[in-house]
Amino acid sequence: MLRVSEYVSAKELKSLCQLSDWQGWYRVFYNYALIYLGFLLFLFLPNPFTFLISACLIAGRILGLGILNHDAGHNTLFKSSFLNRLVGRWLLGGLIIVDYDAFKNGHSEHHRLAGSGTDPDLILIQNYPATKASMKRKFFRDLSGINGLKELIYQIKVSTVEKRIPNIVSHAALLSSLIALGAGWTYLTFWFGFIFIYPAFTRLRIMGEHGAVLDNNHPDPRINTRTTYANAIERLFIAPNHVNFHLEHHIHQNIPAHNLKKAHKLFKSRGAYDGYDCVANGYWDVLKRCVSDSKGHSNTGAHAPSSVPQQS
Q: What is the domain partition of the chain in residue ranges?
């Protein structure tokens, strides 16, 4: 098992875990700004092409708000637990139809049980690598809106009117602001992005984190989790807010997003990843790993180092 103390000192770890309210507010503002940029792009250049680009940009930032909501759930977006919950409920989860408290409680189980057969998120990645035909079906369900509508209906069914107040208020505020800008009709791009594009972006993100890793049932995060290098386009749509440095997040949950890249460089330079196939070179690399050959094996042939004990 990986021991953080073998690679970084207590002082270095404390520095990596340093929270920043400024960074937190900057990320919230930046993600909202890109959502409004999507609306304004379609407002000033209304045509099918800009509609699609706007919807993709908004879908990427719906994912971005989801990641920030995740960070708030870990109490790493802001220094105050109160502020993490307040912003998480009303500015993050509220707009993307996520119950902050339910997500926080459920996600804590993922971290507690990661690397075991009882991880509640295992259902999302246990069928990778998948055949080409299966992968095509998965993305068809994403891009056709089937999965987006199912998720939206599910979120509504499992909740109550009281718990949905942040969703109602957030969307009322969003629509009101667009009407004030003379762009009320562009509000539809949010729902198009949410239903038809966001599920595919989320699938790629999840595949990058835990799909076709060395062994989902091994407790070492270098074996059950992956970090994925992302270029500017991938960061815009699939890997917002440094979520691609997911291995580092599993190594130590208290490292805030703005320090994950720094943590990656530090762990890598100290040899923590030597001999482990736990880093992917972009999401095309991830996709290749998650598509199986005719024998049901990943096309990359990833394997764990022989010195690491395997679990059946």
A: 4-290
